[in-house]
Specification:
single chain; about 325 residues; alpha/beta; D-Maltodextrin-Binding Protein, domain 2; Double Stranded RNA Binding Domain; 3 domains; six-stranded mixed beta sheet; 8 helices; about 30% helix; globular
Amino acid sequence: MMGKIVLGTRGSELARAQVRLVEKAIQSAWPELKIDTKIIVTKGDEPGRPPVGDLRQGRKGLFTAEIERALLAGGVDVAVHSAKDLPSETNPSAEIAAVLPRAPMDDMLVAKQPGGLASLREGATIATGSVRRKHQLSWKRPDLKVVDLRGNVPTRLRKLAENDWDAIVLARAGLERLGLSPAQNVINFDGRQFFTEILLNEIFLPAGGQGIIALQIRSDDQSAREIVDLFNDREALLCLRAEREFLRLMQGDCQSPVGVLATVESGIMKMRAQVFEPGSTTPREGKVEGGRDNGERLAAQLLRQINGEQEQG
């Protein structure tokens, strides 16, 4: 067993908050272990860099590739990622060995006026950086003007304050991890008051991995595996693997308008997905269920259902 473990993460406020949760989990399980954290600048963090890259990957990997490289080079022992930022296929020499318990996976509307999405005026402007959310908003409220939004969570909230937008959409988990958990559907930030609404995931099905902090190790590092295994949330990891398998089969990434969610209850895994086609406002949808350990098979079954293929046998 190693005497020290080095964690690698991005430098954003949210990434630092997430790595603190990992440090706390390690300390609880291994109180004698020394923990170091190394901040790694990723392409997505470089100032002024437009969020483009290899179009086959879309924006996937922009926030994770450098951290994965540091892991494989031995500079860090555990790479700490927001699971939804990871490409559906990663380097075979590295693997997601553990996850923390999943935070709420919902999307959240943050608006200048109370009342939620339904009460936004006709033609209101709403900002999001997610292609999935843009399609979902246009499906639910085709009258809205949807504009692009970039930056970390505090930056996005400041842009809402500074622009003549009516609302933005963020992941609920990120707000809560930054201590911006709404009280009575209100958050206060930089002296401004905003009004929040949790968006129903029947419409706003989340991105694969949303709400999950993933711990990636070198596949041959048994010491790191032993450390993270002690606090791994196995059901959340099974759900993440199922969601990632669906995205892999779809060749999906965060530029694909795809929502997918797996949940486990009483040993049964339920999976739902939405896929938006270019030019179509209504998604193709599907849902399947089965044993919790059959996530990869369920992912394949779900994709066949969405594609309208008949089940074999």
